[in-house]
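#lab-general

N.A. 3:47 PM
ok so I finally got the sequence cleaned up, no stray characters, all 389 residues accounted for. can someone with queue access submit it? mine expired

B.Y. 3:52 PM
send it over

N.A. 3:53 PM
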Amino acid sequence: MTDANDVSAIIRQFADQSGAFGPTGWHIVAQHKNPWGRVPMTDGGKFLDGGSRAYIDRLLATQKQPDPKSRRHHYVPRTYLKKWGFDKENKRVWNLDTITGNVRAFSVNDVCVGENFYRVVGRDGEAHNRVEAMFGVVDSELGRIQALFERLQDPEQLRFDDLMGLGVTVAAQRMRTAQQRRLLLQHDAWLVAQNSGQFKSIDDPSNPLGVAGVHTKTLFAALWEAADVMTTRSIEVWDDPEGRFWTCDAPVLVPFLSNKRPSLMAAPHILWPVSPYRVVALTNSPSGEKAVIRQATAKERGLVRKAIEQGRERWIFASPEQKDRLPTTKKFGRRTQVRLRCTKWTPRGEPIRPPGCCVEQTEVFAAYPDVAICNQGLHTHATKMWDYT
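B.Y. 4:20 PM
back already:
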């Protein structure tokens, strides 16, 4: 069982460590100007100070708060979606349901939300919502970073803490969605099929909150390592004066290349729309500047649109001025799925002696999980993966 105390223990181990980077395992591949004057990494959460440590402290402080009563938990914050909203206080937003093809206006209270999405079972066997309180801290930082980059005019005004805040915000938002939970279930089904004695399914009817527990625990365990990937990229801010950028229910986008999603390290772009007028693009092309603000080209606008159409889970959101441009006639038969392939190499690039192999997991844009494994009798077909397409 996983509860907020488990997640707090993961966070506390980062807060209590002060080591930096080890002397081994690193080599110089290129040199570029570092505009921040500091190494923009935490070594997976081992080196935290300033705003990063304050962020950890705020997360830990939620454990002293009363258990939140809310049972409707948002995996995309309402404050984020309001940038595309209208009506009183921007509380309604136009969205395309890519399953039905319908375009409707909904309250931001009623989209990207799940009943008990973050409700977990504690060590005492009692269910609670304290993880939702932790996500309140995450949402607060997301709101700050979103507003900062929506209004940013002079990149030199960015502080080091803003860079770290951007990294942890993008990492958390990418991992917390319903899409990532579905992919987690596909992965779980594969593991259980390979060794049901060692792996027990997290999708257990007798423990309906088990999936939420595993999802939130793995998210916080991987948070700082994922944030390190984001903070070592260059920041570009793409402007569109006509406000043509959409967003979706998986708003941190790693565009597919030939229908296969590259790793975070290899991806040319990681995209985060912050308003109809702006997208933050984290790129692999060092600029030597804190950020580069420029008008988006037609190619870049097309990249964002395609990334949203392919990367969404179900919902695409547009401003009132752009709602009539939503692709209502498009057939959305595909979305993100797990891709499995056998390889003769380990993730570290070490060769595997025959007849062994290593199963590589990536993501693919497809109608179903894409599994093509060797016929050496080493693997079992995992039919239950298709239950989570």
